[in-house]
Design a protein that fits this description.
The protein has 388 residues and is an alpha+beta fold. It has 11 helices and 19 strands.
Length: 388
C-alpha cells in the first residue's frame, strides 16, 4: 500500500460523497450460511404464537413483533405486523456477512433493526458497494472492501458506486471524471475510478490521484484484479494445477475443530483434510480476524438451544466444501497482490488543492444525500403505499 504522507491527497469522503452507515440487523437468526435454514427458522417462528413467538423473535427497542414498518425496496415480504404474519418465508438473498463470507438473509424489514432502505433501492446487478474496514489490513492491501452483495459488515461506512439503479449517476464528485479525462488524456469509466481507489486508498482514507497515465493504468489493473477476487461474480478463480486445494480425506458430518499444519500445508477439519493450503491463505486477516477461522466459526459455533439460530443443517453441506476451497484460492491470490501495492509510487499528483481550484471539490451538499430513485410504489406498513 502507498505510504501515508502529507501530500495533499483528497479524502475518499470527498471523491465518493454519498455514504451510508452500516446496517444493524439487531438479531442473528435472519442471517445464515444456507437458505434452507432460514426458511425453517421462519416456519418455526410463525408456528409459535403469543409470548412464544415474541421470545423466538428476540425483540429489541427498535423491533418487536408489533412493529409497523414498510416493505424493503425491491422485496416482496408482507407488511402486516409480524405478530399476525402468515405465509411463506420471503425468498432469502445473498449478502456479505463478513469479509469474503457470503451468506443469506431473509429480506424482511420487520426482522431488521436498521435496514438502510436507501441501499436496497440501489442494489442491483450493476452495483458495487465499498465498505471501510477498521484496523490494520496488510493482507487486504486496502482499508476498503468491495462487494456486489449488500454488506452487513460493521462498523465502517458503505459507499455505493452508483446513486441510482442501472449503473446510473456514479457516486463520484461531480466533474471528477471529466477532470481525470483531461489530465490523463483518456476518459476513465466509474468502475476504473473505483478500481484505482481500491488499490491506492491509505489507512487514513486519503486517495492519492495521479496524472501519470502509465501509473494510472497499473493502479487500475491492480484494482480490477482486487475487485474480481472480492466480488467473485465472474469467472471462478483458480490456482495453477499443482497448487490447487483438494479434499484429501473426507470432511466429517459435523466438524468441530479447525487446525492448520504449516509444514504440510494442510487444513484439518477434525479428521478431514484439505491440501495444499498455502500459508498466505491461512494467515490472511482482515481487521485482526483470520478469515478462514472466522468463516469456519460462523458455520460451526453452537447456538443456544431453543433459539431460531439453533436451526441449522444437521450435517456439513457439500456446498460449504466448495465454498471453502474457493475461499482458500481467493485468499492465496489476494496475498499475491500485496507487493504490487508498494510498486505504485505516486508521481504527477492531482492534489486536493488542485481539485478545489478546478471546481471539483468540495462536492455539493446534494451529492452527499441519496438520490430520489423511486419510479414505482413501495408498500408501507399494513399495506399502505409509500411515495418518495
Amino acid at each position: 500500500m502507498p505510504s501515508v504522507t502529507h501530500d495533499d491527497a483528497p479524502l475518499l469522503a470527498d471523491l465518493m460523497p454519498w455514504s451510508v452507515a452500516p446496517l444493524r440487523p439487531g438479531r442473528a437468526w435472519p442471517t445464515a450460511p444456507d437458505p434452507a435454514s432460514l426458511k425453517a427458522r421462519w416456519d418455526a417462528l410463525l408456528k409459535a404464537e403469543g409470548p412464544d413467538r415474541e421470545a423466538l423473535f428476540e425483540p429489541t427497542r427498535s423491533r418487536t413483533p408489533h412493529s409497523a414498518v414498510g416493505q424493503l425496496p425491491g422485496q416482496s415480504s408482507g407488511t402486516e405486523k409480524l405478530v399476525r404474519a402468515s405465509g411463506p418465508c420471503p425468498e432469502p438473498v445473498r449478502v456479505l456477512a463478513a469479509p469474503f463470507d457470503e451468506q443469506w438473509l431473509i429480506p424482511d424489514h420487520r426482522l431488521l433493526d436498521t435496514a438502510r432502505p436507501e441501499l436496497w433501492r440501489v442494489a442491483d446487478a450493476h452495483q458495487v458497494f465499498t465498505v471501510e474496514t477498521p484496523g490494520d489490513t496488510p493482507g487486504l492491501g486496502s482499508p476498503l472492501f468491495a462487494t456486489s452483495r449488500l454488506p452487513l459488515l460493521r462498523p465502517g461506512r458503505i459507499r455505493p458506486l452508483y446513486r441510482r439503479p442501472g449503473a446510473a449517476e456514479p457516486n463520484l464528485a461531480p466533474g471528477l471524471l471529466e477532470h481525470l479525462a483531461t489530465r490523463l488524456g483518456a476518459a476513465p469509466a466509474p468502475l476504473d475510478v473505483l478500481a484505482w481507489i481500491l488499490a491506492t486508498t491509505r489507512p487514513d482514507l486519503t486517495v492519492p490521484l495521479t496524472a501519470d497515465a502509465e501509473l494510472w493504468s497499473r493502479g487500475v489493473r491492480l484494482g480490477h484484479r482486487m475487485l474480481w477476487l472480492m466480488r467473485r461474480d465472474g469467472e471462478r478463480p483458480k490456482l495453477p494445477g499443482g497448487r490447487r486445494p483438494y479434499v484429501r480425506a473426507p470432511l466429517p458430518a459435523r466438524p468441530l475443530t479447525l487446525h492448520y499444519d504449516r509444514d504440510e500445508e494442510t487444513l484439518h477439519l477434525d479428521e478431514g483434510r484439505i491440501s495444499p493450503v498455502p500459508p498466505q491463505s491461512w494467515d490472511f486477516e482482515v481487521a485482526g480476524a483470520r478469515v478462514l477461522e472466522q468463516w469456519f466459526t460462523a458455520r460451526t459455533t453452537p447456538a443456544e438451544p431453543g433459539t431460531l439460530s439453533a436451526i441449522r443443517p444437521a450435517t456439513w453441506p457439500q456446498a460449504w466444501t466448495s465454498e471453502l476451497l474457493e475461499l482458500i484460492t481467493v485468499l492465496a491470490l489476494m496475498a499475491e497482490l500485496e507487493p504490487r501495492h508498494a510498486d505504485l509510487e505516486m508521481t504527477t499528483p492531482i492534489t486536493a488543492t488542485g481539485l478545489h481550484k478546478a471546481g471539483v471539490l468540495p462536492p455539493p451538499d446534494s451529492s452527499r444525500r441519496p438520490a430520489s430513485v423511486l419510479d414505482h410504489h413501495e408498500e408501507g406498513p399494513e399495506g399502505q403505499f409509500a411515495l418518495l
